[in-house]
Amino acid sequence: MLIKKILVMFMLFMAALAVLSVKSQAEDGLEGSVTIGGAAVDLDGKSFKYGEYTGIKDNGAYFAGDADLSYNMNAWYLDFRTKNVGLDNRSLYLEEGVYGRYKFFLGYDELPKLISNNSKTPFIGEGSTNLTLPSGFVRGSTAALMTSLGSNRHDIELETQRKSGEAGFSGTIGDADFKVSFKRETKEGTKSIGSPLGIDGGTTRGVVLPEPVDYTTDELRASLAYTGETAQIQFDYYLSAFDNAKESITWDNPFYFTGTGYTLAQNPTTAKTSLPPDNQHQRVSLSGGINLPLATRISAIAEYGIMEQDEILLPYSNNPNTTITAALPRNTADAEIDTTHIGLNISSRLISRLGISARYRYYSTDNATQRTLFQYVKNDTGGAAQAGLNSNWAAYNLPYDSTQNQVKVDASYYLFSGAALKIGYDHDIVDRNYREVETTKENTYRARLNSSLSSFASAGMNYSYAERRGGQYEESRLYDAMHTQEYINTVAANLRFDNLPDLRKFDIANRDRTKYGADISFFMTPNTTVGLYYNYMLDDYYESLFGLQKSENKSYTVDATYTPAEFISTYAYCTREELKSRQASRDYTTVGGEYAQSININNNWRADHDEDINTIGVGVNLGFMENKLTIGADYAYSESTGTIKFLAGSGTNVAGGAGYRDMPELQTKLQTVNTSAKYKFTKNVAVGLGYQYENYKSDDWATDGVDPASATAVNVLTLSGSVPDYEAHTGMIFVTYNFGI
Question: Least buried of 287, 367, 454, 561, by fewest C-beta within 10 Å?
């Protein structure tokens, strides 16, 4: 089958060659190239991973076409570009204008995202907002008790497709420039979303649903700028409006609990899950700069933005047996965040060897969303009372916002010919509302030395150290803001926490960050270059008893190029990355004895993550017959290996009990081979062919062996399986016609 497809493409290829070989009748001024051809893919089994962003799902042939053309007549021009015409990630661009006066452009892009082709679901109506179970479906408290699940599930492909069109106009009048553009992007398809449901904490179950995607985003941009000899000023306006045609999903509940304490009313028949809400963002900005004597420049920007979301809120419960005694505090989200950004930059070179710059940044988010009390229905339980004011299920939404003040100062000094020393200092203050830490302050010290050691070598070294410190970490700050006073009064003082008091969230925890690196390049001969690179970063959360405690990254790279002759060029590279992190916590439940468990060191657990990534690549390009024939080939191999070492205390509720154990290894491998040959028949016409080999393998203990929509995970009705391995062969033939030669 593959050979037949290649023969068909070859005949089309020869026909195109005959057409394009005819002498061009194009007008003078046409430049660029047009490429047409075809390709065939041989894929050993369907794998969405291979065509994740191209849309190629299986064996088949596709048209290959690219164009890059420009026509000029005096000051008037017309540009046309297209790429990947035969694939689902195609793009088109057309621009027309007069140099120095105006420009009009049109653009179109598509981008697929293949998510899974090994998904299964029992739900009927995928793609809609109403998912139902088939007639006769047997519900159960676990997936294992859904005896009809195997016969009721069916295949479903998860994928989305983005399409965007853009048009714009810009022009110049004197010293003023203006630009207006409009872009509409749509995204359609199906992806996955998880939804929990249950009667209480012990019976809560998860369902992974096929989520319908029907998004539209409109963007409007406008700018007006003035450019003088010494000063510049620009005004910008930006509008983004997002619309989701599918606001929520209603779905049948496949789980059903029976036995003592569980009534029919407590089992919700259907449930409802919200989807991304419609929203709008507007921003205006004014920026400018002025050139002053002594090689000094001052520039500034002031921006103000408004983000709004006013979607209708879903009801507390979708269970008709639930008694609602308190209405929603408001019918819509009524959410708004106002942003303010002010930036000021000053740079100067007072003396020839010394350059200095200073930057100030102010950025704030003012959350104008109301802080109101929501009295939830626990897990959509039917027949139970709605949360009262003295319940932990009565909670306030927290309109989080923050303010940042940042100052950066840099200086560069040229020590001698070919050597420069750069030093810098950053001071960053962030104030937050509704967080465990109100204010964090971070000081960063930076230095870099660059030097051209000789005509045969150059080198550089860099180092930075940052320390972030916050005020008192207070879990009660969040606890008191979220819960009602009526509920707080029912809780003992030593139990007034939701998260462990010793837990530290990494973005506000005290942290020391160390970064350094070095690079050196050797120009061993006029035709040979070798580069060595090393980078290191350590984040040390030295005070975090629980949470992220350490994150360490290292990378080593060697690359080389060798051009022994004008018609031969080669390259090779090798990179190794080492990523390590450590997390720790303490296992405790919130049902009885919370305080005793929260201070019990036997409940501690720790996870050490270690990932190594190795990548190598080699390539060669050859030219023959004064480059009428060019041949290229490259090979790349990447391997990622990850391990998780887990330490469980004697009091933890972990399968396998207490102790130190290694989780199964995580591994991903990708090999690619690319070869191509191109021959110039005439000065205008070139023909070529190419071959690509790709091999992908993945081992992930968390998903390997998972049969979707089955009893593999009894408390979760899954949707997708693991990422399938694949081996793909792609052959291509094409002809290129060059204009203006």
Answer: 454
Check residue 46 and give its pLDDT: 79
Task: Average the pLDDT over 124-150 and give the result.
Answer: 93
State both tokens at 632: 């290229």
92 and 137 Cβ atoms separated by less than 8 Å: no
Alpha-carbon span 249 to 274, nearest angstrom: 6
Cα–Cα nearest to 46, from 671, 725, 583: 725
| Dihedral, 651, 655, 658, 659 alpha carbons, nearest 10 | -150
Q: In this predicted model, what pLDDT tens digit does every residue of 708-734 receive, in sequence order? A: 999 988 999 999 988 999 999 999 999
Q: Which residues, listed in sequence order, are joined to residue 110 by a DSSP beta bridge?
A: 163
State how far Cα 132 lies from the chain centre.
32
Q: How far apart are the first and last CA of the chain?
A: 40
User: Are 687 and 119 within 8 A, CB to CB?
Assistant: no
Q: Are 658 and 703 in contact (CB under 8 A)?
A: no
Q: What is the pLDDT of residues 475-527, one digit of tens each?
A: 999 999 999 999 999 998 888 888 888 999 999 999 999 999 999 999 988 89
**CA-to-CA distance for 665 and 425, rounded, in angstroms?**
42
Tokens linked to 297: 């420049």
Residue 140 carries which DSSP code? B
Q: Which two tokens stand for residue 311?
A: 């979607």
d(CA 646, CA 660): 6
Locate all alpha helices (DSSP H) within 98-165, ordered by sequence.
149-152
350: confidence class by pLDDT, cuts 50, 70, 90: confident
Q: How many residues does the chain have?
A: 741
pLDDT grade for 261, boundaries at 50, 70 and 90: low
Residues 66-76 as b/e (b if ≥16 CB within 10 A, e otherwise) read bbbbbbeeeee
Identify the CA nearest to 623 among candidates 669, 672, 666, 564.
564
Which tokens is 275 given?
A: 């989807």
Tell me whether strands 546-565 and 503-504 are parallel, antiparallel or unpaired.
Answer: parallel
- Write the DSSP symbol of residue 588: -
Quickly count: other Cβ atoms within 10 Å of residue 564's Cβ: 11
Residue 158 burial (CB < 10 Å; 0-12/13-18/19+)?
buried
Listing DSSP states for 295-342 in one string gives TEEEEEEEEEEEEEE-PBPPPS---TT-B--S--S-SB--EEEEEEEE
pLDDT of residue 13: 45
Number of H helices, E strands in the chain: 5, 34
Tell me the DSSP string of 480-528: HHHB-HHHHTTS-GGG--SS-TTEE-TTTS-EEEEEEEEEEEEEEETTE
φ and ψ at residue 544, rounded to 5 degrees: -85, 100
- What number of other Cβ atoms are within 10 A of residue 676's Cβ? 17
Q: In what order do the strands lie in the sheet with 130-131?
A: 130-131, 248-252, 270-274
Nearest to 587 by CA among 508, 500, 522, 507: 500
Is pLDDT above 80 for 657?
no
**Long-range residue pairs from 647-650, CB within 8 A, at least 24 positions apart, any chain:** 647/604, 647/605, 647/606, 647/607, 647/608, 648/605, 649/587, 649/601, 649/602, 649/603, 649/604, 649/605, 650/602
The SS3 of residue 702 is coil
Distance, in Å, from the CA atom of 695 to the CA atom of 130, rounded to the nearest integer, reads 39
